[in-house]
């Protein structure tokens, strides 16, 4: 009997509609740019992480936007085939 291959989260996002990745990107950006710095502002120990987290926000958002474009291209090509 063959083993089933595990599907990663990125593969699931690619199979979903492209706008799901856009929505996740917007939520991640809001959380990383505004919510997390406000939560860390009260802790003097974690205040040094605020610029790091804000800098990583663009990378994470870019990853989700890339997945959205990839998903959209897949949807577009599937519609052309039918």
Please tell me about this protein's structure.
By secondary structure, this protein is mainly α. The protein has one domain. Helix content is 76%, strand content 0%. It has helices at 9-15, 18-40, 50-81. α1 packs across α3 (50-81). The two termini are 34 Å apart. The mean pLDDT is 87.
Low-pLDDT runs of 5+ residues are none
Order of helices and strands: HHH
Largest sheet: none
Number of helices: 3
Arithmetic mean of pLDDT:
87
Q: β content, as a range?
A: under 5%
Helix content: over 70%
> What Rg is obtained from the alpha carbons, in whole angstroms?
17 Å
**General shape:** elongated
As for the number of domains, it is 1
Number of strands: 0
Distance between the termini: 34 Å
Brief summary of the model shown:
The protein is an all-alpha fold. It has helices at 9-15, 18-40, 50-81.
Question: What keyword list fits this structure?
Answer:
82 residues, mainly alpha, 3 helices
Secondary-structure map with pairings?
Blueprint: H1 9-15, H2 18-40, H3 50-81
């Amino acid at each position: 009997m063959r083993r089933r291959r595990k599907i990663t989260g990125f593969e699931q996002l690619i199979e979903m509609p492209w706008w799901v990745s856009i929505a996740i990107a917007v939520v991640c950006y809001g959380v990383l740019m505004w919510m997390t710095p406000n939560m860390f502002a009260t802790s003097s120990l974690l205040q040094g992480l605020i610029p790091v987290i804000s800098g990583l926000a663009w990378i994470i958002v870019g990853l989700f936007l890339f997945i959205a474009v990839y998903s959209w291209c897949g949807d577009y090509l599937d519609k052309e085939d039918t």
